[in-house]
Write a structure and sequence with these properties.
This protein has an eight-stranded mixed beta sheet, sandwiched between helices. Strands 5-4-7-8 form a four-stranded mixed beta sheet. Strands 13-18-20-19 form a four-stranded antiparallel beta sheet, with helices on both faces. It is of the alpha/beta class. The protein is about 35% helix and about 25% strand. Helix 2 (about 45-55) packs antiparallel against helix 3 and helix 6 packs antiparallel against helix 7 (about 215-220). It is globular. It has twelve helices and 20 strands. It folds into two domains: about 5-245, Acetylglutamate kinase-like (Carbamate kinase); about 265-340, ACT domain (Alpha-Beta Plaits), CATH 3.30.70. It binds aspartic acid and magnesium ion (MG). Magnesium ion binds near residues 9, 10, 41, 47 and 421. Aspartic acid (ASP) binds near residues 9, 42, 150 and 151.
Length: about 425
């Protein structure tokens, strides 16, 4: 008998028929003799619809009320799913994040889980019932309802799996696992059977919409094995786990290619080229809570004593960052700020890069053959990222994917629902 946490995303419970299909799978897992905890997201586009509704009522919804509103989506699915499982002849009880003991800090809209007290869930399992937990929500120390940020149900599932020492946390979505590239861009991308948490973190933080980043961080920290798979098929998906000493995992040189369209680029032109300039720039940006990815500094050839500093950051945050820099123009000392709304970022990830030379030569060769200009480059031990023009991004992904022989010969990836989660 195993203890299994199963998480179903919004596309897996988009309507009553989908809900019944999920219920049948949960009931089957239970009847096979396992203890099952289900974490469920809001149905289909419910969260977006609720956000929309709030926007029609007011331009500035109070954060506390927004969180109460958004948690309603998951409450609808948890209750309906409990009914559907009950109908399959398996007793099921649904719980809000608060009832399930998911404790968070008090940052509305982007709360972090600080602990899980799963007594109620444990009791439910002991009584032979399936426990269903509303994803994406918890309760703060002040007893207010909070949400974990978009896509946060993955994190709920992994946190609960960690607290219960579950054997596996299955993340059900609308694709058959993690692919070597987004199948919407590379139709012959292949499924990755096993992926380390480290590679998964790099892929997820560079645009691969596979798992909520914090969920992977949790899985790594608490050693929770994940199985990312489709709720629309019976196929095995992708196992994401930490390597262990007995089983170090055979890691291929390259795991996959991620791409990101959510970033923009800012260039601060003519910053004084003296010690302390960069420090002033980045302390202003830190004060504005910037989430900066790449940074490049290069002095212009036509002027002395100044340098240009460019960085990428999520598009929606850039206007605030530019405003913060402008407000400190005098103390930083610069000529002007240029701001490019959209950039494309393609990232190649693989743990085997550490010990293999020649990876960057192949990557830059592929981009050059495809006639793609490189705007910026950044690397980690197991990743190389390149900024391209946004309209060249898909070509860049395909060129790199082929250059590393990642294209699959036979099976084509299937995207069932199309919403991505
Ligand atoms: N329902 C929330 C969202 O759409 C949380 C989730 O799906 O994981 O972002
Ligand atoms: Mg969702």
């Amino acid at each position: 008998m195993a203890l299994i946490v199963q998480k179903f995303g919004g596309s897996s419970v988009s309507d009553a028929a989908a809900m019944k299909r999920v219920a049948a799978r949960v009931a089957r897992t239970h009847k096979d003799g396992n203890q099952v905890v289900v974490v469920v997201s809001a149905m289909g586009d419910t969260t977006d619809d609720l956000l929309d509704l709030a926007g029609q009522v007011t331009d500035e919804p109070p954060a506390r009320e927004m969180d109460i509103l958004l948690t309603a989506g998951e409450r609808i699915s948890m209750a309906l799913l409990a009914m559907a499982i009950d109908r399959e002849g398996v007793p099921a009880r649904s719980y809000t994040g608060q009832q399930a003991g998911v404790m968070t800090d008090s940052k509305y809209g982007r709360a972090s889980i600080v602990g899980v007290a799963p007594d109620r869930i444990v009791r439910t399992l002991k009584e032979g019932q399936v426990a269903i937990v509303a994803g994406f929500q918890g309760v703060s120390g002040a007893n207010d309802v909070t949400t974990l940020g978009r896509g946060g149900s993955d994190t709920t599932a992994v946190a609960i799996a960690a607290a219960l020492h579950a054997d596996v946390c299955e993340i059900y979505t609308d694709v058959d696992g993690v692919f070597s590239a987004d199948p919407r861009v590379v139709p012959n991308a292949r499924r990755i059977p096993v992926l380390s948490t480290e590679e998964t973190l790099e892929l997820a933080s560079h645009g691969a919409k596979i798992l909520h980043l914090r969920a992977v961080e949790f899985a790594r920290r608490y050693n929770v094995p994940l199985h990312v798979r489709s709720s629309f098929s019976e196929l095995d998906g992708t196992i994401v786990r930490n390597p262990t000493e007995e089983d170090p995992m055979e890691e291929p040189i390259i795991a996959g290619v991620a791409h990101d369209r959510s970033q923009g680029k800012v260039t601060i032109v003519g910053v004084k080229d003296i010690p302390g300039s960069a420090s002033r720039v980045f302390s202003v940006l830190a004060g504005a809570e910037a989430n900066i990815d790449m940074i490049v500094q290069n002095p212009p050839t036509d002027r002395q004593g100044v340098t240009d500093i460019s960085f990428t950051a999520p598009k929606e945050g850039i206007p605030a960052l530019v405003a913060a820099l402008e407000a400190h123009r005098a103390e930083i000392g610069f000529e002007e700020i240029q701001h490019i709304e959209n950039v494309g970022i393609v990232s190649l990830v693989g743990a085997g890069m550490r010990t293999n030379t020649g990876v960057s030569a192949t990557l830059f060769g592929a981009l050059s053959d495809a006639g793609i200009n490189i705007e910026m480059i950044s690397t980690s031990e197991i990743r190389i990222s390149v900024v391209t023009l946004p309209e060249k991004l898909d070509d860049a992904v395909r060129a790199i994917h082929s250059a590393f022989d990642l294209d699959s010969q036979d099976v084509e990836a299937v995207v069932y629902g199309g919403t991505g989660r």
